[in-house]
C-alpha cells in the first residue's frame, strides 16, 4: 500500500515550457486535491476532484489545468510555465466526507527559470 | 469564506519543555479542524482532528488540541517535546464543501 505517490520529485523548467505532474493513490479515495506550498503562505488549493471525470477550481487555479480520467490518478498540467509557478506541489486524497483526513503525497519541487 | 490564522511564525523550545501552538479560525458554521505536521522535505501527516464531541482531542505523538468555540481557537499542545518534534505545523479548517483552508504554518525548533 503505497498511499499517495507523486512524479516527478523535482523538475526545472524554462519559462513557457509545459509539463504534467502525476498523482496516484491506491486507497480507492473519491476525492483528490492539488495544492501549492509557498513560504509563509501555507498550502493553497489549486484544483480538486470529487470523483472520476470531475474537476473543480480551488483558490488559485489560474495557469493550471487538471484531469481525472481514472479514479486513482489526478494530473496537474502547466501549459506555459511562469516563474510565479515556482513552488512545491502537493497532491492529497480523501474518502470524501468533510471530516475525513486528507492523505498527502511527498511533493514535487518545481523551479521555473 | 473560511480562514485560519497561526499567529506564531517560529517557536523555539527546549527539549523536555512544554509546547503550545496557537490557531484561530474563521468559519460560519461548525468547523472541521485539523492539525498537520510536516517534517523537512516530507509531505503532511495528520496529528489530530476535531469535528464533534469532546472538545479536547488526543492525537498521535503525544499531541492534544482543545477546541474553544467562544474563542474560535484550536490550540495544539504537547507536555514534553522531543528533538524529533522539530517540524512545521499547520492548522486547517474545513466544512461541508470538503475543501480545507490552511494557516501559514508555525516552525518549531527544539534546542538541546
Q: What is the fold's blueprint, element by element?
A:
The complex is a heterodimer of chains A (113) and B (112).
Chain A: E1 4-7, E2 10-13, E3 19-25, E4 31-37, E5 43-49, E6 56-57, E7 65-67, E8 73-78, E9 87-94, E10 103-104, E11 108-112
Parallel strand pairs in A: 2-11
Antiparallel strand pairs in A: 1-3, 3-8, 4-5, 4-9, 5-6, 7-8, 9-10, 9-11
Chain B: E1 3-5, E2 10-14, E3 19-21, E4 24-26, E5 32-38, E6 44-50, E7 56-58, E8 64-68, E9 73-78, E10 87-94, E11 100-102, E12 106-111
Parallel strand pairs in B: 2-12
Antiparallel strand pairs in B: 1-4, 3-9, 5-6, 5-10, 7-8, 8-9, 10-11, 10-12
Radius of gyration of chain B: 13 Å
Q: What profile does the largest beta sheet of chain A have? A: 7 strands, mixed
Which sequence of SSEs, written as H and E, runs from N to C of chain A? EEEEEEEEEEE
CATH superfamily of chain B: Immunoglobulins
Low-confidence stretches of chain B: none
Which structural class do you get from the secondary structure elements of chain B?
Answer: mainly beta
CATH architectural designation of chain B: Sandwich
Q: How many β-strand runs of chain A?
A: 11
Query: Strand portion of chain A, in percent?
Result: over 45%
Oligomer: heterodimer
Poorly predicted parts of chain A: none
Briefly note the CATH topology name of chain B: Immunoglobulin-like
What does the model show?
The complex is a heterodimer of chains A (113) and B (112). With 113 residues, chain A is an all-beta fold. Helix content of chain A is 0%, strand content 49%. Chain A is built from no helices and eleven strands. In chain A, the strands form two sheets. In chain A, strands 2, 4, 5, 6, 9, 10 and 11 form a seven-stranded mixed β-sheet that branches. In chain A, strands 1-3-8-7 form a four-stranded antiparallel β-sheet, with no helix packed on it. Chain A is globular, with a radius of gyration of 13 Å. Helix content of chain B is 0%, strand content 53%. In chain B, 37% of the residues are buried. Chain B is an all-beta fold and 112 residues long. Chain B is globular, with a radius of gyration of 13 Å. Chain B has one domain: Immunoglobulins (Immunoglobulin-like). The termini of chain B are far apart. Chain B has no helices and twelve strands. The model of chain B has no long low-confidence stretch (mean pLDDT 93). The chains are: A mainly beta (113), B mainly beta (112). Chains A and B meet through strand 4, strand 5 and strand 9 of A and strand 5, strand 6 and strand 11 of B.
Amino acid at each position: 500500500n503505497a498511499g499517495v505517490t507523486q512524479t516527478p520529485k523535482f523538475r526545472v523548467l524554462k519559462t513557457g515550457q509545459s509539463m504534467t505532474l502525476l498523482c496516484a493513490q491506491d486507497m480507492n479515495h473519491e476525492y483528490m486535491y492539488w495544492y501549492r506550498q509557498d513560504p509563509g503562505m501555507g498550502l493553497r488549493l489549486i484544483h480538486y476532484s470529487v470523483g472520476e471525470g470531475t474537476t473543480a477550481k480551488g483558490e488559485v487555479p489560474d495557469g493550471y489545468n487538471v484531469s481525472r480520467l481514472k479514479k486513482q490518478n489526478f494530473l496537474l498540467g502547466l501549459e506555459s510555465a511562469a516563474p510565479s509557478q515556482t513552488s512545491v506541489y502537493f497532491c492529497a486524497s480523501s474518502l470524501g466526507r468533510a471530516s475525513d483526513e486528507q492523505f498527502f503525497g511527498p511533493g514535487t519541487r518545481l523551479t521555473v527559470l | 469564506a473560511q480562514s485560519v490564522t497561526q499567529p506564531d511564525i517560529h517557536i523555539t523550545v527546549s527539549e523536555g519543555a512544554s509546547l503550545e501552538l496557537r490557531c484561530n479560525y474563521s468559519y460560519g458554521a461548525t468547523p472541521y479542524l485539523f492539525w498537520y505536521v510536516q517534517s523537512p522535505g516530507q509531505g503532511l501527516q495528520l496529528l489530530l482532528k476535531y469535528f464533534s464531541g469532546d472538545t479536547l482531542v488526543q492525537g498521535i505523538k503525544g499531541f492534544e488540541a482543545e477546541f474553544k468555540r467562544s474563542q474560535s481557537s484550536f490550540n495544539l499542545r504537547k507536555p514534553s517535546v522531543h528533538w524529533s518534534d522539530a517540524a512545521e505545523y499547520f492548522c486547517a479548517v474545513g466544512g461541508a464543501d470538503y475543501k480545507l483552508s490552511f494557516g501559514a504554518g508555525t516552525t518549531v525548533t527544539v534546542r538541546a
